[in-house]
Amino acid sequence: MERTFEWLAKALAIVGGVVVVAITLITTASIVGRWLFNSPLLGDTELVEYGMAIVVACFLPICQWRGENIIVDFFTTKSTQRTRDLLDRFGALLIALMLGLIAWRTGLGAIEQRRYGSVTMLLQWPDWYAYAAISAPLGIAALMALYTAITGRNGAHGGPPTHNPVPEGALRQEP
């Protein structure tokens, strides 16, 4: 299971990276076209919107799997390792629930957008393409978070971090 999650996380990150490069090229072409020919790319903002949704969805699984999400641990730095591990697992469960809900609603949104024939304003691209493209990566990230919540393991170190990011004497106050 962990090897599959690692492979999926890497594959989706590569897809996300390719889409970032495409967005960069589209934006550059539009700016150059506007500057040189007074003619930007038609629908460039729509393409960037589609692309950014895909990028975010494709990078979420690798962040989740490797435990690289931002964690605010200000209140837990003096807690025991066991308490921090339990809180990390509870946080992973909350992320799994949230991403699962978003993936589910996005999938339903794709079905609805397709049924109603909703399209973008300039390019007339079907809106459901974007919904469908982000639903699967969100669902994969949700499954990874659920796995972490259940097992306490992720792709970072086989589990939650075991080090305290704040040096031992850093929180002591001098009299």
List its salient traits:
4 helices; single chain; 175 residues
Structure, explained:
- The protein contains 4 helices and no strands.
- The chain has helices at residues 2-37, 44-65, 81-116, 128-151.
- 67% of the residues lie in helices and 0% in strands.
- Helix 1 runs antiparallel to helix 4 (128-151) and helix 3 runs antiparallel to helix 4 (128-151).
- It has one domain.
- The model is unreliable at 159-163 (pLDDT under 50).
- It is mainly alpha-helical and 175 residues long.
Radius of gyration: 21 Å
What low-confidence regions span 5 or more consecutive residues with pLDDT below 50? 159-163
Give the fraction of residues assigned to helices: 55-70%
End-to-end CA span: 52 Å
Shape: elongated
Q: What share of the residues does DSSP label as strand, in percent?
A: under 5%
The residue-averaged pLDDT reads 88
The tally of structural domains comes to 1
The number of helical runs is 4
Characterize the largest beta sheet: strand count, sense, and whether it forms a barrel: none
Number of strands: 0
Encode the helix/strand succession as letters: HHHH
Structure class? mainly alpha
